[in-house]
Amino acid sequence: MVKRCKWAGNDLTMQKYHDYEWGVARYDDTYLFEMLTLEGAQAGLSWQIILNKREDYREAFRQFSVAECAVLTDDELEEIRLQTGVVKNKLKIRSVRSNAIAFQKIQMEFGSFSNYIWGFSEPIINSWEEEADVPAQSDLSDLISKDLKKRGFKFVGPVIMYSFMQAIGMVNDHVRHCDFK
Q1: Nearest of 171, 168, 139 to residue 33 by alpha carbon
Q2: Binding site annotation covers 174?
Q3: Domain ranges of the chain
Q4: Catalytic site residue from 17, 57, 116, 118
Q5: Which residues hold Zn(2+) (predicted)?
Q6: What is the pLDDT of residues 125-177, one digit of tens each?
Q7: Do residues 170 and 124 touch, judged by C-beta distance below 8 A?
Q8: Which member of 22, 39, 57, 116 is catalytic?
Q9: Is 69 annotated as a binding residue?
Q10: Which architecture characterizes domain 12-172 according to CATH?
């Protein structure tokens, strides 16, 4: 029997995400933008809700093409809010465009967003005994959050950034008993 972190539960979408994405180091800018967007959308909601809407997000936000998201018009963003299965929060939807613009500026400065974000840290492999031991944020997530906010990003608080770090494998927080450690 496969042992997983408890948060993956019995939901196949959550289990697939846990098994193949969470804690796995990723360097592709499109994937990084997707995770940044989804983690921001998750604020105040469950990750399961967001994962269940992931395909709607991909369709609405042009497969997370940074270039296409950066030029979405107000009318297009409103249509996305009204006509798609994404979280209906207007500020979260508008943040996709503003974050795409800020993301592009980082790409121009650092060559890629990956170069920028991975410049903060090599992958951190934690060894927690139980999920209750896993922090919601860290000094590193606070540092990244502050830097992103200075660069114009929205929905990038320290808790969101810690989740983002887990999502892209900058932090591996699988507990010791997990087969995917």
Answers
A1: 168
A2: yes
A3: 12-172
A4: 17
A5: 5, 18, 174, 178
A6: 999 999 999 999 999 999 999 999 999 999 999 999 999 999 999 999 999 99
A7: yes
A8: 39
A9: no
A10: Orthogonal Bundle (1.10)
